[in-house]
Amino acid sequence: MPWRLLRFALSKKHPEPRMFAQPDKLKTSYDAVIIGGGGHGLAAAYYLARDHGMTNIAVLEKGYIGGGNTGRNTTIIRSNYLTPEGVKFYDASLDLWKDLSQDFDLNLFYSTRGHYTLAHTDAAMRTMRWRAEVNKHYGIDSEVVGPEEIRRASPQIDLSCGGHSPILGALYHAPGAVARHDAVAWGYGRGASMRGVEIHQQTQVMGIDVQGGKVCGVHTDKGYISTPKVLCAVAGSTPRITDMVGLRTPIYIHPLQAMVSEPMKPWLDPILVSGSLHIYVSQSARGELVMGASLDPYELHSTRSTLDFVEGLSAHMLDMFPFLSHVKVVRQWAGMADMTPDFAPIMGKTPVEGFYLDAGWGTWGFKATPISGKTMAYTLANDRNHELIEGFSLSRFARYALTGEKGAASVGH
Amino acid sequence: MRLKAIPGEWIDRSSEVEFSFEGHAYRGYRGDVISSALWAADVRLLGRSFKYHRPRGILSLANHDINALMQAGQRLNVRADVEPLAAGQQWRAVNTFGNLQRDSGRWLNHLAKFLPVGFYYKAFHTKALFPLWERLFRRLTGLGKLDFDTPHLRTPKDYDFCDVLVIGAGPSGLSAALAAADAGAEVVIVDENARAGGSAAYQRGGKAERYQRVNELLNSVVRHPRIRLLTSTTAAGYYADHWVPLVDEQKMTKMRAKSVVAATGAFEQPAVFHNNDLPGVMLASAAQRLIYRYAVQPMQNAVVLAANADGYRAALDLAVNGIKVAALVDLRGKQAPSRLADAVQACGINIFHAHCVLEAEASADGNGVAAAIIAPFDAEGNADAASTLRIPCDGIVMSVGWAPTANLLYQAGTQMQFSDAVQQFIPAQLPDGVFACGRVNGIYDITQKYSDGERAGRDAAAYVGYESATTLPQIAAETESPSHAWPVVAHPKGKNFVDFDEDLQLKDFENAVQEGFDNIELLKRYTTVGMGPSQGKHSNMNALRILARLTHKSPGQVGTTTARPFFHPVPLSHLAGRGFSPERLTPLHHRHQQLGAVFMPAGIWQRPEYYAQPGQSRTDCIRGEVAAVRHQIGIIDVGTLGKIEIYGPDAAEFLERVYISRYANLKIGMTRYAVMCDESGVIIDDGVVGRLGEQHFYFTTTTSGAAPIYRELTRLNTLWQLDCGLVNLTGAMAAVNLAGPKAAEVLAPLTELNLALTEFPYMAIRETEVAGIPARLMRVGFVGELGYEIHVPATYADALWQALWQSGQAHGIRAFGVEAQRLLRLEKGHIIIGQDTDGLTTPLQAGLNWALKMDKPFFIGQRSLQIVAQQPLQQKLTGFVLAAGYSGTVPQECHLIIEQGDIAGRITSIAWSPSLQRHIGLAFVRPDLAVENGAIAIRLSDGSMVNARIQPTPFYDPKHSRQHYPAQEVAA
Asked: Is B545 on the interface with A (CB under 8 A)?
C-alpha cells in the first residue's frame, strides 16, 4: 500500500483540491483561444503554459472536457507507422507518454502490453514487413513474428480463426500500450488550469471573426472574445469550425464504433489487431474486453450506434476466440472520426493568419495527444510549424505531397 | 423459508430441482430462480461486491443483482436473480478468493477508507513500480472466469415484423397491445420476465384484485388473434427505424416494427443509508417478487422504509403473508389520511413519519441484518442522529421511489424532462412512431396505467393506419409523488452505498465534486457510477440527485448521461449468430480438387495456389507449372476476375471517364489495357476493356476489385446520368486462360474461329463457340505467351475445361495456379495492383505513362495527375536482378533499399526466374537510382545487405514476340 493513500484515511476532510478551476465568466480578450477541450486541446494549453509561458488562454468546450473522441476511443498507443513522418512523430509521442503519469502526478494507468497486428494473407504479411523495416530504420521496436510467437503471447487464440482466415504472422510492437483515456484529459486539464489557463465547459463557439485574412476574435454563446490566435482541435466537428473561417479541408466524417464486455478475470495480456477480421481488442484494468472495428462505410455526422456493427464484430471475435461465446456485451458507442485522404493528420498553420488546425485525427488521435499538444503549442507560440509536423500541413493536399499512412492507420488505429 | 401456496406463484411444487451452491447441495422447485431457491433455503450470502468484497444478498430480483453473479462451468457472470433453476447445476459466486464465506478478499473492506473515489489515480504510478501494482490489480479485478474449452456456440438469428411492438407486458403494456390489436394492428408484445403481468402481479397491497384484473387482461391478450406474446424475451436496444433486437435464451430476433410502444415500467430505487447493502436489505419490489412469484419468505421480521403508497402496499403484502412488520418508517411528514395507511395501522404496524433508516445494524456474522436504527428526518433531508431508535429486525424493505426504464426511449432519441410532480424524467418529445405509457411515462396509479396503455396502443395503431373512432380516455394527474426527492441519509461511517456494482458511497460523490467533477458526465467517468454491468439502473438516479444537491441545481438541470445499447448485456454468441463467413468457389473448383490443388484465399474466393504433384515440393510443382506454360501449354482458372458488361450510346464515354486510357477510338473486336485511378490519381484497379459493338463493351477488373469497383461504377453512373447500363457478370461468367506455345493447337480443334494472326491478332476479342459453348475469346499476354482468355457462362465452365483438357492431353497440358502466374507475369514485368502499387502509387510512378491519356477532356484522377506531373517524381517502379549465382538469403517483398543510410525504396515483387536462371524483381526506387545497370543495396530483416542491379522490364522476351504471334508463325 503506497504511503500516499494513508492521508485519505488520516485526514478528516477529503484532502484533494479541485482539479480544474471553475472560471466565472469569459474575459473579453485572451492571447489565444483553443476550441475543443479534449485531450489535444488541453494538451496544447498545457504545453503553451508550461513551455512557452503563455497562460492568458481560454479553452472552450461545447460539452465537458474529454467528452468527445478522447473519451470514446479504445486507448491504444503505438508508434509502428509506415511513413518516416508518422514514425518520428508517434515515437516522440510515445516518449512523452512514458513519463506523463509522473509529470502529472496522476496515474494514467499507462500500461505497456505489446501490440500485435495480425496478418491473415500474403498481402498483409508484406505490409507488416514493410512497416517493420521502416520502423527498425528509425529505431522503433517492431518486428514480424510467426504464429508460434503469437501463441506464446496469447495462448488461447484460435490461430486458424475458425478455419477460414488462418493467421500467418504478425507485426509485433513491444511498446504498444493502453492508458486510461479520461484521465489523460484530466491530467492535461489540471496542469493547464494550475498554470492559469481558463477552461470553459458548456461554452459553444458560434463564429470566428476574421478580418483582412487574420483572426481577431471568437463569438461564443457566452459572449465575444477578442484574440489573435485560435487553435481548432475539435476532431469530428472540424468542418463546422473551418467553415467559420472559410477554410476548405479534405476532411470527411465517418462514424467509428466500439463496444465493451462485462468484466472477467484477466486473460488477454497483449493488444491484438486484425485488419482482415476488422478487430482490435485489449482487456482493461477492470477486466472488460474493449473491442473495436473499422470505420462505418458511410459519411455521417452522428454518434448513433448500429446493430450490424456489434453483430459483425461479435462474429469475428468468436472466430478468433471461440471460448467467448458466453461473454456478454454490455455497451456500445460511437465517435465521429475526421478522416483524411492519406490517413495522416492535418496540423499547423493555415492560410488564415492566426488560425491553427489540429485535425484529421480520424481513428488515430489518442496516441498522438502528448505530441500534438507539444508541437501545436510550439507552432502557436512561434507562429511557425514545428519540424515534426511539417509533413502534416494542410497545403500538402494541394501539392499532392501526401503522407500515406493508409496501410498503418486503418483498423489498427 | 417457503410460504404456503399463493395464487399465481411461478413455482411448480410437484417438481423438485437439486442443485449446488458453493459446494453445498440445495433443493428448489421448477420455476425458481437461483436466488429464490437459495433464499428459501435460508441462504442470505449470495455473493460479494466488486471492490470491497462486502457480503451481498438479494437487492432487486429483477435482473440487476450484480452482486449475485454466479458461475457454473463455462457460463460466467450469470445473474442469479433471474437465472431459472435447472437440475444438477453447480453454482459458485464469482470473484471470491478461496470461497464465498471465507473470501480472503474481505480485507479490502477494511481498507475502504484508504481507497476513496479515484484512489488509483493518486498513487501507484512510480514508473518502476507501476507494472508490479498493475499485476496485483489484474489479479483482483474482473468478475467471472473464462473456460477456454468453451465451444464456439452458433445460434440462429431470426427476423420478424409487426405493426406495433409493445415492450413490457405489465398493466399498461397489455392494455396498449389489446387496444392496438382491437384497432386492427398486428401486435407483438414482449416481456423479459418469464410471465406477463408486470408489477400488478406482485404489488398487490395484500389483496387479490390487482392480480386478478391484470390476469383477466392477460387472458384477453393471449386469446387475441392479432397479438403474439413473447415472454423471457428482452428488447435489448433500439436502433434507427424501429429496429429492435429481441433476445431470448436461444437466439436474437431482429424485429422491424412499424411503431413501438415503450411500456417498460420503472426500476425501484434503493435508499442510501449506512449498511444499505447488507443481505436482508432489499427493494420492496424484490420482497414482493419473492412472495408472489416464488412463495419465499423474504424475512421474518421486517422494517419497511417507505416514501410512497407502494411502500404501504408492500407492508400489507408482508403482513398478510405472515411476516411481522416491526415498523413502517416514512421519509415524508404526516400524510393526508388514506385507506392504505388505515389498513397498515389496522395490521398493528407502527408508522414513523418524517423518519429515516439511519443505518442497518449488521448481525453477528456480518452477513445479515440485526436491527434498523431509525432517526428523525426533516423536510430538508437531514437526519437527526442524536435521537435514534433501534428496531430489531432481520430485514429492511425499501420503497422510496422509482426511476423510469427509459433506456430504449433515450436510444430512440426521446427528449426527456424532469417532472417535479412525480420526481422523475418523463418523455417530453417522442420520436415519430414511438409511444410511451405507464410508469415510464410518469403514470403510477393502477387505473390510470390501464387507461394510459389504451391511449398509447390506439396512438400506435393510428400511426400505422388503424384509426379507431372512440374517444380517448383522460389520464388524471398523480395524487402523490411516487418518488422521494432525497432518499439519501448521510452517515459519519459512510458505507451508505449509491452504486452497488461499483461500491460507491455517498462521500465518494461529495469528494468527486470537490475535485471538480461536477457535471454528470465527468462525475460518471471519475467515480465510474453506472459503469458496472447493471449500467446504473439502481444508481444513476441517486447519483444525479446527489450531484444536483451538491451543485445547487435541480435534477432537470443536471440531466442524465447517455443511455446506450444494450438494455441488458447480450452474449457474443447471440450477436454473432451462426458466424457467416462467406467463401466463393469458382465453377471449376472440383476440377482443381481432382488435380490436387492447394488453395489460397483471394479476397473471399478460394483459388489454387499450385497443384501438388506426388513426391514433389511446392517449389518444384510451381516450377513445373511455369515450364509447362513456357514450353507447352498451361491452363488457369481466372473466373474470379470481375466481369462487367456495359451497353448504351454513352458506354464509350463512361469508360473514357473511369479509365485513364482512351476507349472511344477502340475498334470493335479489339481490347485495351485499362487502369483506374481514384480522385487523387492513385491506381486502384486494372483490367482489360473489349469492344463488342459500337455501344457495347465487356471488361474485367481485378479479383479483389470485382465487388467494390462495380459498386463504385454503379454510383458514378447514377451520378453522371449517362445513357448506358452496367451488368455485373462476375458470377455469371467463368473464365480460363489457355496459355503457352501450343495454345492455338489446343484450341483450334474446338472452334471454327480462324486463329490465324491476321484474323485474330494479339489484343483482339471475338464471340464464337468453343466446344459448342458460346464463348468470348480474348488474345491476352499477361503471362507472356500466346494466350486465349476464354469466357463462358458459368454453367458451361466444366464442359469447357474438360474439352480443353482433352484437347491438351497430346500437348502435355498442365493446370497452373496463382503462384506460377505471379512468377510468369513477373518475368514479363507486369504489375499486380496492390502488390506492386500502394495507397499512393500513381500511373507515373508505376511506369504506366504509355497508358495515360492526359489530353482526354476528363477522367477520374486527371486533375490530380496534372498537378503531380509538374513535380519531380518521388519514386519509380523498376526491375532489378540479383547477381547470377547468388546463394545467400533471398530478400523478401517489402525489404528496403538503402542508399547512404537513407531509405531509397522497397522491393514489391521478387522471385527466382527459371527462364533467366536468377532472382528477378520489381522495386520502387528513387528516380536517380533507376538507371539501367545501376547498383542498389537491399537490406534484409537481419540488417545485412544484398546487392542488386537495375534491369528494365520485361526480363523475358523483351520484344513480346511470343505473345504476339502464334507459335508456328514464330517458327516460320
From this structure: no
